[in-house]
Design brief:
This protein is mostly helical. 75% of the residues lie in helices and 0% in strands. The chain contains six helices and no strands. Helix 2 runs antiparallel to helix 3. The chain starts with a helix and ends in a 26-residue tail after the last helix.
């Protein structure tokens, strides 16, 4: 994972610079700078609006006693999207807008949730247990996966006398 971050911190700025130079050669230097400034101003306004909405939804969820799972995910996406918008460049701005805009954020949240859940199940004991249970289920009607014990559902009855 650290190698992935190192590559990202090296590759993304080079790609951003390439895209900025290509757009600059296509529409000119000053229009390119103006476009980057316009994206920054628009991004700051969207960050402010969506950040307030995410904070309000988080406060409402906590105030009503609900677990704020979706609200926390939205707040995190707004934070990451805002950070990407503050980074100069067209590619990071596109990614930032995707994370910030209300019509694209649910899709990003679903993708992120699936990614995190698959990662969680791949690296935890719970995930290994679920994979083993599935392997036991797939082994057939009478069989269990090797090394698994059979689970018998039951009830514990305490018959001890508690009189003194």
């Amino acid at each position: 994972m650290p190698a992935l971050f190192a590559v990202a911190f090296l590759v993304v700025p080079v790609l951003e610079l390439y895209v900025i130079l290509r757009i600059g050669s296509w529409i000119g230097a000053w229009p390119t700078v103006a476009l980057l400034v316009l994206e920054g101003v628009l991004g700051a306004w969207i960050i402010n609006r969506e950040g307030r909405r995410a904070w309000g939804a988080l406060r409402d969820a906590i105030g009503t006693g609900r677990l704020p799972g979706r609200e926390l995910a939205d707040a995190g996406l707004v934070l990451v999207g805002g950070t990407l918008l503050l980074t100069p460049g067209f590619l990071t701005d596109i990614a930032g807008f995707l994370l910030l805009l209300p019509m694209t954020r649910p899709l990003c949240r679903r993708v992120l949730t699936r990614l995190l859940m698959s990662r969680l199940f791949a690296t935890t004991r719970l995930g290994r247990g679920l994979r083993q249970a599935r392997a036991g289920h797939d082994a057939g009607a009478g069989g269990q996966a090797p090394g698994q014990s059979q689970v018998v559902r039951g009830e514990v009855i305490d018959r001890t006398d508690h009189r003194e």
